[in-house]
Amino acid sequence: MILLDTNIILRSKQKHSTHFHGVVSRLLELADEEEELVVCPQVIYEFYVVATRPPNKNGLGLSTINAKNEIDNILETYYMPPEDNRLFYMWRKIIADYNVSGKNAHDARIVAFMIMHGIKKLYTLNLSDFARFNSIIDFV
What we know:
The protein is an alpha/beta fold. The protein has a domain at about 85-135. The chain is about 55% helix and about 5% strand. The chain is built from seven helices and four strands. It has helices at about 5-15, 20-30, 40-50, 65-75, 85-95, 105-115, 125-130, and strands at about 1-5, 35-40, 120-125, 140. Strands 2-1-3-4 form a four-stranded parallel beta sheet. Strand 3, helix 7 (about 125-130) and strand 4 form a beta-alpha-beta unit.
């Protein structure tokens, strides 16, 4: 399984992005290699925030209806394992063990989800955001 970070999902929806073709090509390669591509609720929340934010605020400017339709498409395309309240305790352990603060706590929640589901690989464009976790996850 490979967890897709929010930036991968976002770039796959932005045809004008310099990353669009590379991201879509890589996703197709991974699918051809029969990798199970996964998202988590945190990625969906983050996607919705950016999708409904105006373009002049670094968003996609989608209406709430269009953003919901995009989320439906994401959930039809990628697998989303369930999460439960144990995730909170794993997240709490990770932020303590890795001394995580500020907005990086969002990324720590993604890592906690990965650990809870035995997901070892992450596809992200923001390697530096996850660098502290490179002993427990691999980057695609």
